[in-house]
Amino acid sequence: MTAPPPALAVAVLVGLAAPLAAQSPDMDPAGEIRAREEALARAMHARDLPGLDALLAAGYILRGSPDLDRQTWIRNAVTHCWGDRSDIDGLRVQRHDDVAIASFELTFYVDPATCRPAVLRSLVTDVWVREGGQWRLRVRHAGPPPADASLASQYGAVPQAPPVWEVASELSLVATGGNTSTLTLGLDGGLTHRLNRRTTAASISFLTSEVDSVTRARSLTLEARHGFAVGERLTTFVEAGFARDQFAGIEGRTSLTAGLGYAARLPQSHTLTGEAGAGITIEDRQDATGRSFATATGALHYVWALRPEARLTQDAGISADLQEGRNWRATSETALHVTLTRVLSLKASHAVEYRNAPVAGFGRTDLRSAAALVIALQRYANEQ
Questions:
Q1: Reduced to 3 states, what is the DSSP secondary structure of residue 197?
Q2: Long-range contacts made by residues 327-333, C-beta under 8 angstroms, separation at least 24?
Q3: Burial of 302 (0-12, 13-18, 19+ CB in 10 A)
Q4: Tens of each residue's pLDDT in the chain, 384 residues
Q5: Long-range contacts, 233-242 (Cβ 8 Å, 24+)
Q6: Could you tell me if 36 and 137 are in contact, meaning their C-beta atoms sit under 8 angstroms apart?
Q7: Is 333 in contact with 346 (CB distance < 8 Å)?
Q8: Three-point CA angle 369, 375, 379, nearest 5°
Q9: What DSSP line would sit under 206-263, residue for residue?
Q10: Contact at 8 Å (CB) between 161 and 151?
Q11: Beta strands 134-143 and 165-176: pairing type?
């Protein structure tokens, strides 16, 4: 038998190879990726652990904040409800050598958390990699599909990290004239520095009251505090303070306290922090008596973000004398803060201070209502 000419043999081989090439997955990446996506969905419906394991690459992650690793994702897939059907719509695949990027809308018809009928739709972007001749899913990102294609639909607001440096000052002034001339002036200032898990703060508060140009009483408070975040919600702190309060008959009070704080889990617009501590207080009074005693303290700090430019705060605290039970004090301040500009804001507040064992000749309760102009300068970590 005579061998066919070389040109004829080449033509026959090309003709035979063409149908095989047309069916090759490398020539139709969208077809094979769709098949893999459908297989992944079927494995979720069936809670098929081996099937899921075969479809996911070793380093698989679900992108999020934080990311979800392979083991956690598979555990969720086999323990939650996914119903018996799902739809993959609008699939688009881009192939780059051994990497394929697929984007599509994925719809399930059951709530995975409650197993009740629902329509849940995600816009999914998957990154598939070819390993050992098989496509395996390496990275997935999923989110709700936007209602429109505007710029705003591409972003979501997230809580702003607190500033690294913050300087704030407050000025409140009340004056009357006529039969009686009175003047009450309040000044407050604070400096805060945040670095990694540490927060250091110092503050000063001054209040003076005059009647017919005669100073009747003054108060001065100095405080310094250093805190360290032990975990996401737990902090430790130590603080020192000095106060002179002629309104309450206190010539000088020096205190040192150490303790723990815990932030509760609340909806995003609310924050609540509780604190407990122990320390020592040294106090000189206008009645010529002096005291030095150990203290136990507690405090609650609540913030309600009414709107982006307005918030309501409530601060309450108690200090108990561990040596004399009747000598305890409590404070409370409610304030409404309204932001005008990045630098200026208004603050309206009402404060109550109660002393169960007051200085002789002074009452148990002091009240203070004030409206103040607040000037605040802040520097964030992402600012130059």
A1: coil
A2: 327/291, 327/293, 327/356, 327/357, 328/356, 328/357, 329/353, 329/354, 329/355, 329/356, 330/354
A3: middle
A4: 344 444 433 333 334 333 433 334 444 678 999 999 999 999 999 999 999 999 999 999 999 888 999 999 999 999 999 999 999 999 999 999 999 999 999 999 999 988 888 899 999 999 999 998 899 999 999 988 877 766 666 676 666 788 999 999 999 986 666 666 778 899 999 999 999 999 999 999 999 988 877 777 899 999 999 999 998 899 999 999 999 999 899 999 999 999 999 999 888 889 999 999 999 999 999 888 888 999 999 999 999 999 888 999 999 999 999 999 999 999 999 999 999 998 999 999 999 999 999 998 899 999 989 999 999 999 988 665
A5: 233/262, 233/263, 233/264, 233/265, 234/260, 234/261, 234/262, 235/260, 235/261, 235/262, 235/263, 236/260, 236/261, 237/261, 237/275, 237/277
A6: yes
A7: no
A8: 135
A9: EEEEEETTEEEEEEEEEEEEEEEE-SSSEEEEEEEEEEEETTTTEEEEEEEEEEEEEE
A10: no
A11: unpaired
Q: Record the tokens describing residue 349, joined without a space.
A: 């507040």
DSSP state of 372: E
Q: Is 323 helix (H, G, I), strand (E, B) or coil?
A: coil
CB atoms within 10 A of CB 129: 17
Rounded CA separation 323/340 (Å): 47
Task: Output b/e per residue, 53-90; b: 16+ Cβ within 10 A.
Answer: eebbbeebbbeeeeeeebeebbeebeeeebbeebebee
